[in-house]
Amino acid sequence: MNTAPFDLPIQQMSAVMSNHYHVVLFIDEKKAKQWSMNEVLERWHRLHKGTLLTQQ
Length: 56
Known about the structure:
Blueprint: E1 10-14, E2 22-25, H1 29-32, H2 37-47, H3 52-55
């Protein structure tokens, strides 16, 4: 499993400002569709608490 929660490589950073920035991400749809439901939930829970249902 990749260590990045959603496996979204940064393609480009532009317009870095004092209060925000712009990021271009690449979404590998083919790779993401290969993830099982458990893998998606594990990745989601790396960033978010989730609900009682998804924590089971």
